[in-house]
Amino acid sequence: MTYAESSNIHSPVDAVRQPAGVFSPSVWGDYFITHTPMPSSEIEKIKKRIDELKDVIKKQLRDASDLLQSLEMIDAIQHLGVAYHFEFEINDALKKIHRDGYEESKDLHTIALGFRLLRQQRFPISADIFNKFMDKEGDFKESLKHDAKALLSLYEAAHLGTPNEKILENAAKFTRTYLKLLLGTMDPNFATITSRSLETPRFRRTERLEAREYLSIYAEEKTRSELLLEFAKLDYHLVQSIHLEELLHITLWKNSMALSENLPFARDRFVELHFWMIGAYFEPCYSRARIMTTKLLILTSILDDIYDQYGTLEELELLTEKIERWELEGVDQLPKYLQHFCIVLYKTFNDLEDELSFEQNSFRMQFLKKEMKKLAHAYFDETRWGNQHYIPSMQEHLRISLLSCAYPMLFCATFVGMYEVIPSNAFEWVTEFPEIVKASCFICRVMNDITSDEHEEIGNHFASIVESYTKDNECTREEACNKLKVMVEDAWKTLNQEYLFTNLPLFLVRPIFNLACVMELFYKDTDNYTNPFGSMRDNIKLVMVEPILSKW
Fold it and tell me: How far apart (Å, rounded) are the C-alpha atoms in residues 414 and 406?
């Protein structure tokens, strides 16, 4: 049966059934349809100025002779979100610093900053470099406790630690303690930077939101480079306009698929999901990939709610079989809401495959289909256990829930829309559940379950990881959450290790790491995805709506 034969895309939904929960409507609606693209004359004017400034900054990077000056310039460029313009220059500068043995410095700020920047670029560097700052008892020297700048640099470096790097574990505890004590004595701007880092370390923050927030802070820095500040603002403005055009496209696509009309019980969070993908990769060259992946995430979120909130077990068994067979034949045997979902799902995959076929990359979609099938089966297993009121062991839970968090499918999806040449063995690697994927999924699952646990303990809902831990260890919910948070910290260390040593280019590894950072943003204290009226609305408004330039 063809798409046209099977159903009208705007066919009415079945008689209304009450879902297990009621979600808040979208905060944004059709807001981004009103976006007016930047005039081409303005784009050209900004690009011309960006190119002029870029040449000057490249020269400054190449000519920097002072070690600390070079490190701080690289750090500022990265913090302002414009490092993608200077990848070769930054790599060359760090290669020179690594080759020349910067470890001879006796300044903790210099050593810690260099350590973090080198590790971020996957240069091999041992944490033993910090031994020189320890006393005979194995503690950090007393003289360091009052050097706020050095403490902050060490604190940030400590969060790139890997398993068994005890010195970095001690550094994180030591610096957190004394930075908190020094907060009241700091310069206001530095106190702001420090407070934000104590809340979430730099390496775990999403780059785009961090760049936007840091632009305001950097503008108040006494040592700022006016040239770099201008460059960063112009670039932010230009990239923001690209992101807004993407949202316009996605809004029109979503409306044309009549998703809200036919699946009204599902969470309508397309803007939040696009923001999610900006967290994975924000650079202009990934515009197509963001659009593709956001569409897939929209459908995945709906599929989650179909299994979790709306479908009966009998309906969901039919849906799982339909997705497994990946064909529209017999789709009319499903309820109308599932007919509509399947039609949109298959049409979206076919459209993506058609686009990729022009580049001889349609093979990528075969990997993605397999991941979507795995996801549907995981959702169904959860629903079946929920209906049985079965609380699985931690081991049983993770076997299913590390798949049902949707990150394995999403990691594969992030590769699909990239223009870079990506061999099939990279897709084989990412779909075989390597350690970096496992660690990121664990962070995703636990952070999601801890914040969503209480409001999801209704009806036949699948038990959370918190419930499984509580059952296995005969402890309270609070004790379980505290232990799971320790396990999340261990997973971050594994993630760092795999980031450093995975034998794939950084442009493939970074989105996997960055998506763990997105979980830190969305689920650190509460479920900011299901509840759209809190801090996430403010974050999206800051990044996507508020202009960075007063005039141009």
Answer: 12
Global pTM exceeds 0.90:
yes
359 Cβ partners below 8 Å, 6+ apart? 419
Compute how many other C-beta atoms are within 10 angstroms of the C-beta atom of residue 163: 11
The HSE-up count of residue 59 (CA atoms within 13 Å, CB side) is 7
Separation between Cα atoms, residue 306 and residue 337, nearest integer Å: 9
Chain position carrying tokens 């409507």: 25
Q: How far apart are CA 511 and CA 418, in angstroms?
A: 12
| Domain 257-264+281-532, CATH homologous superfamily name and number | Farnesyl Diphosphate Synthase (1.10.600.10)
CATH 3.40.50.1000 fits 52-231, yes or no: no
Which amino acid is it at 444?
C
pLDDT level of residue 532 (50, 70, 90 thresholds):
confident
Torsion of CA 349, 350, 351, 357, to 10 degrees: 110
Distance CA 123, CA 342 (A): 46
Beta bridge partners of 134: 140
Judged against a pLDDT cut of 50, whether residue 4 lies above it is answered with no
Written as one letter, the residue type at 58 is K
pLDDT reading at 258 higher than 60: yes
Q: What is the CA radius of gyration of the chain?
A: 24
Domain ranges of the chain: 52-231, 257-264+281-532
- 215-245 per-position pLDDT tens digit: 999 999 999 999 999 999 999 999 999 999 9
| The pLDDT of residue 29 is above 70 | yes
Nearest CA among 324, 445, 464, 315 for reference residue 382: 464
* Res. 2 pLDDT band, cuts 50 70 90: very low
Contact 512, 411 (CB under 8 A): yes
